[in-house]
Specification:
single chain, 180 residues, eleven-stranded antiparallel sheet, signal, LPS_export_LptA, LptA/OstA family protein
Length: 180
Amino acid sequence: MRPSFVLTTMACALLCLSAVSATAQDRTSKMSGLALSNDKPIQIESDNLEIRDQEKRALFDGNVSVTQGTTNLKASNMIVYYKGSGDSISSGNSGDIDRIEVKGNVRLVSGTQSARGETGAFDMTTEILTLKGKQVVLADGANVFTGCKLTVWMKNGEAKLESCGGRVRIQLDPKSRKTN
């Protein structure tokens, strides 16, 4: 399997798992992100894998699980869209990945941090990640951030959690503050 596109997926996941400090209805914040364990093996499991070279996409269907170290991404489905001429996604050329989409009970977990939503997408060209759902929940231990759309601009680390008509909600645990 193509480790590089999985690394990109995991990078998206790790950025989602960073703490967001938003106190307004729609708020843009800095996200520090987490480092990938590039030296650790990556395991992908799904009920089915279908590579459609003519359509330039790979479909992972049913109980998709991507694991690297202590980080795990789960979804019902994952589609990897690729571009380029002649190469199949199975050839291992990560530069040909256009975008990655996940849907169906999307869950990201890394240590004490987690994120969940209904759908997610990562555009390789713009390096923009989105996670959407009726309730997108980011949690870092007891600190919980809730909205319905999270957008992360990976190039500059900016993130925006949107309410989609309601309000962004935050629950902060004062015991989670780091002491110097």
